[in-house]
Automatic annotation (TrEMBL):
Annotated source species: Quercus rubra
GO terms of molecular function: metal ion binding
Alphabetically ordered keywords of this record: Cadmium, Lipoprotein, Membrane, Metal-binding, Methylation, Prenylation
Keyword Disulfide bond: no
Keyword NAD: no
InterPro entries: HMA_dom (IPR006121), HMA_dom_sf (IPR036163)
Cellular component, GO annotation: membrane
PROSITE patterns recorded: HMA_2
Protein name per its UniProtKB record: HMA domain-containing protein
Location of the protein in the cell: Membrane
Domain HMA residue range list: 29-93
Length: 158
């Protein structure tokens, strides 16, 4: 009961510390969405094969009409993005759009984007460049509520 117990406890503690470090280093399952310009089926196939070969990728979906690449797996989004940029030579960026319903003011100058697919607007919450532009000013709010059907004191033109 003396030295052997102390030595065994020390060995167990070291094993526990190492196993905790290994658990922290594991990557989480992520969904990475990337905007890549794809003109034809060949480009689509090339991008899909390139990403499927990466370690940790479980599923790859390509939507050519939207120029969207969706990768599901245990991957780092920046590594996927860099690989697509480097290997294909195409301009690629993380998917900058969100559904129309998510943004509070979808037609504000920062949020509305003509190049966005139908039903989507620019993600102004995550993009600091456009976030200040996508808010309605106090005057705009007053104008829209003055002519609202829900406001009983609203201006009525008959």
């Amino acid at each position: 009961m003396g030295i052997l117990d102390i030595v065994s406890e020390l060995c167990d503690c070291d094993l526990l510390l190492h196993s905790r470090n290994k658990l922290k280093k594991r990557k989480q399952l992520r969904t990475v969405e990337i905007k890549v310009k794809m003109d034809c089926e060949g480009c689509e196939r090339r991008v899909k094969k390139l990403v499927e070969r990466m370690r940790g990728v479980t599923k790859v979906e390509v939507e050519r009409k939207l120029n969207k690449l969706t990768v599901i797996g245990y991957v780092d989004p920046n590594k996927v993005l860099e690989r697509v940029r480097h290997r294909t030579g195409k301009k690629a960026e993380l998917w900058p759009y969100v559904p129309y319903d998510v943004v509070p003011h979808p037609y504000a100058p920062g949020a509305y984007d003509r190049k966005a697919p139908p039903g989507y607007v620019r993600n102004v919450v995550d993009d600091p460049v456009y976030s200040s532009l996508a808010r309605a000013s106090p005057w705009e709010v007053k104008y829209t509520t003055a002519f609202s059907d829900e406001n009983p004191d609203a201006c009525v033109v008959m």
